[in-house]
Amino acid sequence: MRIIAGKYRRRVIKSLPSMKIRPTSDRLRETLFNVLASRIGEDSCFLDLCAGTGAVGIEALSRGVGFATFVDKSRRACILIEENLDLLEIPEEKTEVIRSDAAEYLRKTNRTFDLIFYDPPYRDEYIWVLNEIGFRDVLSEKGILIVEHETKRGLPETIGKIRRWRVIKQGSSSLSFYESL
Question: Which residue segments constitute the domains of the chain, with CATH numbers given?
Answer without folding.
Answer: 26-180 (3.40.50.150)
